[in-house]
Amino acid sequence: MRDIVDISIVGAGPAGATAALVVGQTECRSLLIDEQRQAGGQVWRAKDRSILSAPATPESRSGDNLRERLAASGVSQMTDTRVWQIERQGEHWVIHTLRNGTAGRLYSRAVILATGAREEAQPVRGWTTPGVIGLAGATALFKQSIRLPGRASVVAGTGPLVFFVASEIRRLGGTVAAVVTPNTRADWLARLPSMMARPDLLWRGGRWVADLMLASVPIYWGHAVKSVSGDDRVIGVTLCRLATDGTPLPGDIGIAADSVCLGGGLAPSIEAAQLAGVAVRYRPDLGGWVSEAESDGSTAREGLFLAGDSCGIRGAVAAELHGQIVARTALRHIGQASASDPALERAYRRASRFGEAMTALSVLRADPIGLATPDTVVCRCESLTRRAIEDEIESGAVSSNAVKSGQRAGMGPCGGKYCQSSVARLIALQENRALSEIAPPTPRPPIRPVPVSALAGDFDYGDLPMPKPAPL
Known about the structure:
- The chain is α/β, with parallel strands linked by helices and 472 residues long.
- It folds into 3 domains: 4-118 and 267-359, FAD/NAD(P)-binding domain; 121-264, FAD/NAD(P)-binding domain (3-Layer(bba) Sandwich); 372-437, BFD-like [2Fe-2S]-binding domain (Arc Repressor Mutant, subunit A), CATH 1.10.10.1100.
- The chain is built from 14 helices and 21 strands.
- The strands form 6 sheets. Strands 1, 2, 3, 4, 5, 6 and 19 form a 7-stranded mixed sheet that branches.
- Strand 1 (4-10), helix 1 (14-24) and strand 2 form a beta-alpha-beta unit.
- The termini are far apart.
- InterPro entries: BFD-like_2Fe2S-bd_dom, BFD-like_2Fe2S-bd_dom_sf, FAD/NAD-bd_sf, FAD/NAD-binding_dom, Metab_Enz_Cyan_OpOx_G3PDH, Opine_Oxase_asu/HCN_bsu.
């Protein structure tokens, strides 16, 4: 007999974990599933055991508080678990998992997907050189291991994350060779009215910038990294100034460094929702392609709800509040009395205004593919260059699915997370079409790598009844 959960929550970041806490206050059976060993997601990532005595930060305090509340709530958790398929079977949702090398299935009446966001790659010459990491990857090093990306780092990217990473490098004793951002001072001033919705966060961001300026760290406003120098290690970067339309201007600037933190903004993680049958739409103001859901998290798929950044990048504060709203929606779906909370919804709208202002700043002014040379690697998993992808488009592959089929772009271990945005931009550029017309590729299971041995289980080919060869 199947063991059926009332509500399963996939993702234990700000949205998923807070949704689990709301559901956990009821008598319904719930389960919180996450890939990491402890809840918290990227924003509230738990410290490694070796650095538990390290000074607390606002993020570590929030994460510790969340994990304590989850432990006290008695919410069932399945951590260190990879979800690689989700599908509807009859009246229930089936979640396919991989845990400790073993494949399993979970059955649930309702599912809340809180899969968060992923970092956009910015392919430039040399971006695959050892010593180049993403801004989000750098924050993981800080929060989990208190490790620096290098001795002297160039930090490049959009929005507030670039200043957070640079400030953390300095706080941990590292050297910031330069901060490079396509944003201009005017871009930030234009978003100031919306940012006033959260003066505490605005003040914190102001402190990051002030710290860098007082330390005489050069900040290159309206610039982008054009290339990374070095063969087996980073030795420096080349910058270029950007025109108002984002195109590079003449006059390169060279900076010596042994590491580069390079980010291209955030994009919603929509693959799990797509696999479950949720449609997507193009919203560049919310990070690109987003899953279609109502503000209360409900979707066109019965019993499937979306929470947090997978519906659009609005930041951790908004995601935390949205998780609570969506949990109430899911509870009502399974017949649990759970009234809406107007005060909570107002707080969510207020936090969303701030988060959407940050997302607007995180959208690249420069077309990231415009800085890629013909020999620049665009798909790291398959070592595909810009030239190879453009040749495939020239041959008639004018959709993401077609390029994926012809050149395997997006069929590697990352599942296209690092290359599909760039592939779409190349198609739009070469075909003179809008990005909104270049839909992401159709998702196929597994959405996360799964070893064949785990799917085979105890199956033994020796047990097959093989007939003897026919006599000659």
